[in-house]
Design brief:
eleven-stranded antiparallel β-sheet, eleven-stranded mixed β-sheet, single chain, 13% helix, mainly beta
Length: 897
């Protein structure tokens, strides 16, 4: 499960492509099967390779508890399996199996794999006992307690899979200090086999319906074949076969094929497989890397869980804050939207990592094909073959999107629309999409649907953009360092970095200036993203938190930027702003000193800057097509005249269409519901039925609803209510003025007990916040707030949290603090708050609350949570008794029409 970095640096050989500066889709045209191109990814819609499985959306230690990450993030990425620690295990803070089980299952999850060994601390596991039999006896007593706890979970227990041993060849039945007898079972399997048999039977005796997974080795050793023979002979064959693939996507395919051959030879199975750890730091968070793993896992029709190298509760570097996703999250969201069956995909270099790979599906009922691909910079043709005219007609509509890399802790907008157009299918039944300037760190999606229906193609959602690498910029002053190469195919333990290098020097006491010379095509406003990192526990960073630097354009317009923190060095996020530029060349500088604004405090490394023209493509409302939504009880209709896009969706009573909508921040947005009439429908937001009039009517129209969107991912569901509404699409844009927010500073609230106002955190609004709330219900913070009308409201809490538990391994162990919130003296609601990496780094978290008209009282407190049985507590400071530091709250009506 956890290894020293030196043991994971070896990787499959492969060339590293140069990061492209831009991505453009060349004009796609009708193609022929014989088009001669150096690189082609061929998608054969005529070859069915099995039902879509979705198994690559799995996570090891990715869910901390209810709200970290949000249920939107779990459901939206189609999270299928989670491997996590035994309830109350001391291995890491949070991720307790029976606490995360209900929110995971309620969000659509399938199975929780309980690492029963993680009831112990350390790795190798520190199981007590004078000898092997005594250690095993202690473990089996703890196993009995775990099974008894699971049996109290009602129907949720049907989603539990027990994993009795984890990498047993390296710890419990290996050769080290904490092994059973210091003999690896790979050399002499007798002790492990006997322990497996006894433990298996113990669990089945306690719960005959239990599912048990194993042997959970670090790789698919040849000795597993002998394990299968033993398990069959003693009737203890696991219900799920598990092992880890910390190797390459190519190894996934070959290992699964090898294992399936063993099953046939021995006469067991076929068993479900969960490769419950896959990927490395170099891969995780990078859509162009992870899509290669996804293609191999989906082709193999197995489940698999992303490896846990860093912090828990962030979906293995997919989640940002509580409710935001980075590029990797959007990749898995696109993967989760696939349906029907997979089709044959022939890559230009089949089953070779660090080359162009992909996965594709065809859903005959929806009349859609979806393809995900990436992993290579440069140009390639994406060829769809055997397009069935009975499904698609002679014209297809192709929507092409890019899912860029945004860093491990960098929020990402929804996929960028590169092109949306109609193509004539060639006489040979194919179309070719020429992709130019692809970026190896990005993944790409193509959605193919019937064309020729009159809907207007949507304009691209991006315009001119460029990347400028920090290592190519000009540095003046003291302290310069060029760092790298970072992660590479031959050093996969390190983190991915654009261009493989980054620059240091902007720190406390420095006079450094990093200058980027840029050339832009026209006058206008440009979005500027600075990809940067400060290690939150580094000495120079500890004092202030976010490192501040100073931006100027051509020596003018100074402003201060606060750069993102991370849990280690080279963990990238981005700070965003806008700049006004005229046509031609300019110099953009980041400096550690500014004569007008001050000096840098902290220490930062810079990876790159991204510059993008903020024109009508970018500022137009985001388009969410009904034909591409998640549908229940219905399917798209591509034949209705008057549709604005590829098609419409008929919503009879009870039918629904769900859209996963991005918001850049917590606040008001206008959702425009385009429809062709015929009926009415209700709206829900993040599972909350909105108290607004139903949308729709007799004829074509647009209904506009003002809603409060949480920053990041929002779930908007349109559900048929009367007759049959023909839904066309949603348009979403930020707005102001309809939903009034009332802001209350924490220092103006009422504190009791030990809770107190502090001015220790300079980045709190007004320089003040409230700390020491909790550690007993006498220590509270209370706000008296006013609501203009009764009903559901968005409560936005600006907070900070940097509590971190002592660790015995390389995983940082931040703690998600909690608050128990009471409204008007009612029952408390527990809210989890993920780490902000420093107590002087504040984030917003929004939860819905019900308020009465007029005065309301909101009270925050906390106390340390006991273990599951309520008779013990955690002895390693892994459950905080405190709320986060609270800066302020905002109260906003949830919706208005």
């Amino acid at each position: 499960m956890r290894r020293n970095r030196s043991s994971i640096r070896a990787a499959a050989a492969g060339a590293t492509a140069v990061t492209a500066l831009a991505t453009v889709l060349a004009g796609p045209a009708a193609g022929t099967a014989g088009a001669a191109e150096p690189e082609r990814l061929v998608i054969d819609l005529g070859t069915d390779t099995g039902a879509f499985h979705g198994g690559a959306s799995g996570s090891l230690y990715g869910v901390y508890g209810d709200g970290v990450p949000s249920r939107n993030l779990i459901e939206g990425m189609g999270l299928r399996t989670v491997s996590t620690k035994a309830q109350d295990g001391p291995q890491h803070p949070g991720a307790d199996a029976l606490e995360m089980l209900p929110p995971f299952v309620d969000s659509g999850g399938k199975d929780v794999y309980i690492y029963m060994t993680d009831i112990y601390r350390g790795f190798p596991y520190q199981w007590p006992g004078a000898d092997g039999p005594a250690r095993l006896a202690d473990f089996q007593r703890k196993i009995s307690k775990q099974v008894a706890q699971v049996k109290t979970m009602g129907a949720y227990k049907d989603h539990v899979v027990y994993v009795p041993f984890n990498e047993p060849e390296g710890n419990m039945f290996g050769t080290g200090e904490w092994s059973y007898d210091k003999v690896s079972w790979l050399d002499d399997p007798r002790q492990f086999f006997a322990a497996w048999k006894d433990t298996y039977r113990l669990i089945k005796d306690l719960d005959p319906e239990a599912r048990i997974a194993g042997p959970n080795t670090s790789v698919l050793y040849d000795q597993i074949k002998g394990f299968l023979r033993y398990a069959k002979a003693h009737d203890v064959v696991p219900d799920v076969m598990t092992w880890h693939e910390l190797s390459s996507p190519a190894k996934v395919r070959t290992s699964v094929a090898t294992y399936r051959r063993w099953e046939k030879e021995i006469g067991v199975g076929p068993l479900p497989i969960n490769v419950n750890e896959y990927g490395h730091n170099y891969h995780l968070s990078v859509p162009g890397q992870v899509v290669q793993w996804v293609s191999a896992i989906e082709e193999s029709k197995i489940d698999a869980d992303l490896a846990y190298w860093n912090i828990d509760g962030n979906l293995n570097d997919s989640a940002v804050e509580a409710n935001r996703g980075n590029g990797q999250w959007w990749l898995f969201h696109a993967y989760a939207q696939m349906s029907g069956h997979t089709v044959e995909v022939t890559a230009p270099h089949p089953n070779q990592q660090y080359t162009l790979q992909g996965v594709a599906t065809l859903d005959e009922d929806k009349k859609q094909s979806r393809a995900l691909f990436g992993g290579q910079s440069g140009d390639a043709d994406i060829v769809f073959r055997n397009i069935d005219p009975a499904l698609f007609g002679t014209t297809v509509r192709a929507t092409v999107q890019e899912i860029p890399w945004t860093g491990q802790v960098g929020d990402s907008v929804q996929p960028l629309r590169l092109s949306d157009r109609e193509l004539t299918v060639g006489a040979d039944g194919s179309v070719t999409l020429p992709m130019t300037g692809m970026n190896e760190m990005s993944a790409y999606q193509v959605i193919l649907s019937p064309g020729g229906n009159g809907g207007e193609p949507a304009a691209p959602s991006v315009s001119w953009r460029r990347t400028y690498e920090a290592e190519n910029a000009t540095y003046t002053g003291r302290g310069y360092s060029r760092n790298g190469p970072e992660g590479t195919p031959s050093d996969v333990g390190r983190f991915a970095t654009s261009g493989a290098y980054n620059v240091g020097g902007l720190r406390t006491g420095s006079d450094g200036v990093l200058a980027f010379d840029v050339d832009v095509p026209r006058d206008g406003t440009y979005d500027l993203s600075v990809f940067a990192n400060s290690y939150n526990l580094y000495d120079l960073v500890k004092e202030q938190g976010p490192t501040n630097v100073f931006l100027r354009v051509d020596g003018k317009d100074p402003r201060e930027l606060r750069l993102p923190l991370g849990y280690k060095w080279v963990v990238w996020g981005h700070t965003d702003t806008t700049v006004e530029l005229t046509t031609g060349t300019h110099r953009i500088t980041l400096a550690a000193q500014d004569p007008d604004l001050g000096v840098t405090k902290g220490d930062a490394i810079i990876d790159k800057i991204d510059l993008a023209l903020r024109d009508e493509h970018v500022t137009a409302p985001a388009i969410y097509e009904a034909a591409y939504a998640s549908l229940s009880g219905t399917r798209p209709d591509y034949g209705r005249p008057g549709a604005s896009g590829p098609g419409t969706v008929p919503l009879a009573k009870g039918d629904s269409a769900t859209f996963w909508v991005y918001a850049p921040g917590d606040g008001e947005a206008t959702v425009s519901v385009d429809h062709l009439g015929g009926g009415r429908a209700g709206l829900s937001l993040n599972g909350e039925r909105l108290d607004v009039p139903e949308v729709g009517g007799a004829g074509k129209g647009t209904d506009r609803v003002r809603v409060f969107l949480s920053g990041g991912i929002n779930k908007i569901t349109v559900t048929g209510a009367a007759r049959e509404l023909t839904l066309d699409r949603l348009l979403v844009a930020p707005s102001t003025g309809s939903l009034k927010t009332r802001v209350y500073q924490a220092e103006d609230g009422t504190v009791t007990g030990a809770a107190k106002v502090t001015d220790a955190y300079t980045f709190a609004s007004n320089g003040k916040a409230v700390t020491d709330i909790g550690d007993g219900r006498a220590n509270t913070l209370t706000f008296d707030v006013v609501a203009e009308r009764p009903g559901r409201h968005a409560l936005t809490i600006r907070y900070s949290n940097a509590e971190q538990a002592p660790a015995t391994h390389y995983n940082p162990d931040p703690i998600a603090r909690h608050a128990d919130l009471s409204v008007n003296g009612g029952a408390t609601r527990r809210i989890l708050f993920p780490t902000t990496f420093h107590f002087n780094n504040f984030w917003d978290l929004t939860v819905p609350v019900t308020l009465r008209k007029g005065a309301n009282r909101l009270t925050f407190t906390a106390e340390e949570l006991p273990d599951f049985d309520g008779d013990t507590s955690n002895q390693y400071d892994q459950r905080s008794p405190y709320t986060p530091v609270i800066d302020r709250i905002g109260v906003t009506p949830l919706a208005a029409r």
